[in-house]
Amino acid sequence: MTSNPAHEKAASGPAIQNDRQIKAIAPPEAKSISLWRLMWRRFLRNRLAVANSVVLILLYVVCFTGDFIAPYNFNAVDEDFVFVFPQLPRFVDQAGQFHLRPFVYGLETRLDPDTFRWVHEPNFDRVFPVYFFVHGDPYKLFGFIPMDVHLFGVEGPGKIFLLGTDSLGRDMVARIFAGGRISLTIGLVGVSLTIIFGSSLGTASGYYGGTVDLMMQRVIEFLMSFPAIPLWAALAAAMPPNWSSIQRFFAISIILSLVQWTGLARQVRAKVLAYRGMDYTTAARAVGASDGRIIFRHMLPNALSHIIVVATLAIPGMILAETALSFLGLGIQPPLTSWGVLLQEAQFISVILQHPWLMIPGIFVIIAVLSFNFVGDGLRDAADPFAL
Amino acid sequence: MTKYIIRRFLYMIITLFFVSIAGFFIINLPPGSYVDVYRAQLEAQGTTTAERQLEAIVKQYALDQPIYVQYIKWISGFVRGDFGRSFLYNRDVSELVWERLGLTAAISISTLLFTWIVAIPIGIYSATHQYSAGDHAFTFVGLIGLSIPNFMLALFFMVIAAMVFDQSVGGLFSPEYVDAPWGWAKLVDLLKHLWIPVIVVGTAGTAGLIRIMRGNLLDILNMQYITTARAKGLAEGKVIFRHAVRNALHPLIMLLGMSLPEIISGATIVAIVLSLPTTGPLYFRALRDQDMFLAGTFLMFLAAMLVVGNFLADILLVWLDPRIRYD
Questions:
Q1: For a tag on chain B, would you pick the N or C end, based on fewer CB atoms within 10 A?
Q2: Closest residue in chain B to residue A370, using alpha carbons only
Q3: Residue B158 touches partner A, C-beta closer than 8 Å
């Protein structure tokens, strides 16, 4: 958050008339604190919100460096290792001896003659120690830095699958990180669009009033008269099948924000309506400020904290919506992946009972959504620093 | 009041008109025509009368005419209760929807009741015991309920039902009752299966409603008339239930109006996971296979329910709450 001089002036304007008075009231060492500072302090006092912001930052960092952290590429198919159970690195071997360097056993794959399924059993004679910074599948970090070093891994032909593999033998760790990149970004992109549409249209509606306002309110009512999930599904289904996955990604963000901006626009409108009657707006107009200046220097900065709160609380809804759409096969399409796409594999109860680790992406969804909710709650409480 | 209702009603009609245009437009968005799909289907079956049948369909729904003629044809049929024909099921849309509407409404209404019965007392408790251990616990559980994707909760309960209760998973009936005529045993069987969708769909709603109820009541408890009521020596129970809760419930009427579409949509995603014989999966399949009349009818139905729900809620609100001015 950046400090905004116009905002401070607006916030502390009426109480302090001139410099001399400040000096008279305030003890010499006291400094005035900006509104943003107050909010920041208040936010820091909410430990739950702070802890969850840390969780969120970690999630983003881990997901975006996921190609490096995970030992394999998220699309690397391995037919020999289908539905491998999550393996934990071991420190103690079969003989009960302790090893400082963790290791995994090699996996033997055979066909179960009764169930006709591939089963993987550890071969206790083949020990693969886990090394850090090993060379493996080549990838491009952040999409442009070519690398082949992975944070950890084992030497071939050993394999390490900390969270197991899916139906095509792809590493779940890598897939969860790759999915998180999409699921977490779609929330941010969608919310940015929501902020852009919601605050600009809401401001115009509240500031100019009259016909503009009337039209805008009808449009919002119109958009709100569709139930969200069926509308999203209909629009997602209407996407041409020949679109690339990137196009789909952005189309889905737009579809999600199409419904979301209306709520924000209404709230911003209400705020701007209130500001329009304030003394500082009248004062600004009296000294000849243009509409643009009044809106961008005086009104929006005042509404900004509110916009941020609403936006933060809108992100979890978007993540959940994307997950649901992708889960139904209407959202993100392979080769891209998202948490919803990953959960698609866990659609059937029989699959879950046999391969429960396929539900792990869902835990990440819950963590992300929960964290955004807590952070949003914290921001909301902090946004009004003068409340008790 | 009458004037307000009339004006609000006119707004509703206008909104419905635009909604229908948008719905028709969305349904026509997918590239390729359903007639092509249908033709391919018929040819695959080797039906010889295919061309004649297709011509009849094209003629009946004016598919060879400009788009606005198609729209007029569609909407005028809609008003008369003729919703067009599903190419996917080769049956009338109205038949398909009616067939599933009963069970959908049963699930949705039970869910709604569950949500309100659970959420409102908890909301009242949380607000009157703000920051107590119980309040924190409910807030936390509520947040978790909001954060779990519904379909995951559905899967979770299915696993429990399969492992602990050894119940036939998914659906609304045990296999032996699916085609059985209605009777006492079938009803009991239905109730045995109903709890999963009700809890799954209700959880998120309950969590949301608790938060709203708590917030509303807290706002009202800070009002001066509550202080006045306490000051004049009213019993605390009377203050809470007579003065505070009644006013805190008013905003929830809007929510009730907004949940009207859910009565016919059920929870689409949960219904698909649990393979419930409701309208949600029908809509979803229609979308995927571009069965235009079916999907369009459904979307239109849902939007209409929402618009009507909002209309009813507005009227109800003005009628219940004399503080609202409606001019």
A1: C
A2: B147
A3: yes
> Given an 8 Å threshold on Cβ–Cβ distance, is B149 in contact with A320?
yes
What digits encode the pLDDT tens for the residues A128-163? 777 778 777 777 777 777 777 777 777 777 777 778
Using N-to-C axis directions, what is the helix angle for B93-128 and B184-221, rounded to 10°?
A: 40
Summarised one tens digit per residue, pLDDT across range A34-43 is: 777 888 888 8
Residue B286 forms contact with A (CB below 8 Å)? no
What sign results for the dihedral spanned by CA atoms A348, A354, A355, A356? Answer: positive
Q: CB distance from B300 to chain A under 8 Å?
A: no
Q: Which of A56, A218, A226 to mutate to test the interface with B (most CBs of B within 10 A)?
A: A226
- For chain A, say whether B272 makes contact (Cβ under 8 Å): yes
User: CB of A278 within 8 Å of any CB in chain B?
Assistant: no
Report phi then psi at B118, rounded to 5: -80, -45
Q: What is the pTM of this model?
A: 0.81
Residue A25's pLDDT band (cuts 50, 70, 90): low
Contact assignment for A373 to B31 by CB distance below 8 Å: no
Is A231 in the B-facing interface, judged by CB distances under 8 Å? yes
ipTM of predicted assembly, 2 dp: 0.78
Query: Among B211, B170, B212, B315, which residue's Cα sits nearest to residue B257?
Result: B315
The reply to whether residue A226 touches residue B19, judged by beta carbons under 8 angstroms, is yes
Q: Is B179 exposed, middle or buried (0-12, 13-18, 19+ CB in 10 A)?
A: exposed
Chain A (74-133) residues lying within 8 Å, Cβ to Cβ, of chain B: none
Instruction: Kindly compute the dihedral angle of the four CA atoms of residues B234, B239, B242, B246, in this order, to the nearest 10 degrees.
Output: 160
Using a CB–CB cutoff of 8 Å, tell me whether B265 touches chain A: yes
Structure-derived torsion over alpha carbons of residues B196, B199, B204, B210, reported in degrees to the nearest 10: 180
With contacts defined as CB-CB under 8 Å, which chain A residues touch B273? 347
Q: pLDDT tens, B274-302?
A: 778 888 888 888 887 777 778 888 888 88
Q: Are strands A118-141 and A90-92 parallel, antiparallel or unpaired?
A: unpaired
Residues in chain B with CB shorter than 8 Å from the CB of A346 are 155
What is the maximum alpha-carbon separation in chain B? 86
Q: pLDDT digit string (tens) for A197-251?
A: 888 888 888 888 888 888 888 888 888 878 888 888 888 887 777 788 788 888 8
Dihedral pair phi/psi, residue B113, rounded to 5°: -60, -45
More confident residue, B220 or A18: B220
Closest of A104, A162, A152, A150 to residue A132, by C-alpha: A152
Q: pLDDT value at position B33?
A: 62
CB atoms within 10 A of CB B91: 13
How many Å apart are CA B92 and CA B86, to the nearest integer?
6
Other C-beta atoms closer than 10 Å to the C-beta of A346 total 22
Query: Between A222, A233, A362, which is nearest B15 by CB?
Result: A222
Q: Which one is predicted more confidently, B81 or A250?
A: A250
Task: Tell me: pLDDT of A50 over 60.
Answer: yes
Residue A101 has pLDDT above 70, yes or no: yes
**Distance in Å, alpha carbon of B233 to nearest chain A alpha carbon:** 27
